[in-house]
Amino acid sequence: MKIDSIDHGTSFDWGRTSGDYVKYRDIYPDIFYKKILSRNVGLHGQKILDIGTGTGVLPRNMYTYGAEWTGIDASENQIEQAKILAQNSGMNIDFFHCPAEDIYFPDESFDAVTACQCIWYPDHKILAPKLSKVIKPHGKFLILYMAWLPFDDEIAGKSEEIVLKYNPDWTGSGETRKHVWVPDEYKEFFDITLQEEFDVQVPFTRESWHGRMRACRGVGASMPENKLSEWNREHKNMLDNCPAEFDILHYVSIAELTIK
């Protein structure tokens, strides 16, 4: 994938991170899922579409609440991992390799659509009208985002410095608390009925934080192998001076859009 407004046009491939995604990116705290439920999304009897599902983190973690989930993603490798993880856990979730813009579901198929960590990637001129059709009347579109706070958390800040040393084109650094982006294209079809932010502490070990950083777009998804090897060594050396276990301060941002 290559988007001019992201990483100065540097190509990235989430499929390269699938192994790390499985092990290190299932990190959302319970309050994250409870907030989704509090918006009446993911409840028993509902049908939910998760776009940009990756390895199916959101559908798999919310499966026990009783909704019927479908996940789509542009990365075939990510979808294959999602299928394996769901099957191994006895979960009946439909996963499809499909870019969000290419959805083909009948009108009013879903009570809600979720987009977690992926709102920057689709072509919203195509996607917005399609979502307005596949969501039932009065249904919702939740845009979800969680990011570490490098200016408030020392370890996160040091990790970002090392990423930027080897990949200065990465534009995912320097995160601060703010509303998650709601593209203008959705305002024709949806009302914004909630925008909320809150802080969370996410626990890590040295290994799991290293894996989480390696699974980010600026590292495993885009660095050439020689740079990745150098980053890997320097980041591990930095973490050797950190506690064996630690929390990383993140913030969560949720935007709820409701069909007009």
Explain this structure to me?
This protein is an alpha/beta fold and about 260 residues long. It is built from eight helices and seven strands; from the N terminus they run ααβαβαββαβαβααβ. A seven-stranded mixed beta sheet has the order 3-2-1-4-5-7-6. Helix 1 (about 20-25) packs parallel to helix 4 (about 75-90), helix 1 (about 20-25) runs antiparallel to helix 7 (about 205-215) and helix 6 (about 155-165) runs antiparallel to helix 8. It is globular and about 55 Å long. The model has no long low-confidence stretch (mean pLDDT about 95).
Q: Helical element count?
A: 8
Q: Biggest sheet: strands side by side, in what order?
A: 3-2-1-4-5-7-6
- Secondary structural class: alpha/beta
Oligomer: single chain
Query: Mind summarizing the main beta sheet?
Result: 7 strands, mixed
Unreliable stretches: none
- DSSP strand content: 25-35%
Please compute the radius of gyration using only Cα atoms. 18 Å
- Specify the helix fraction band: 25-40%
Q: What would you call the shape?
A: globular
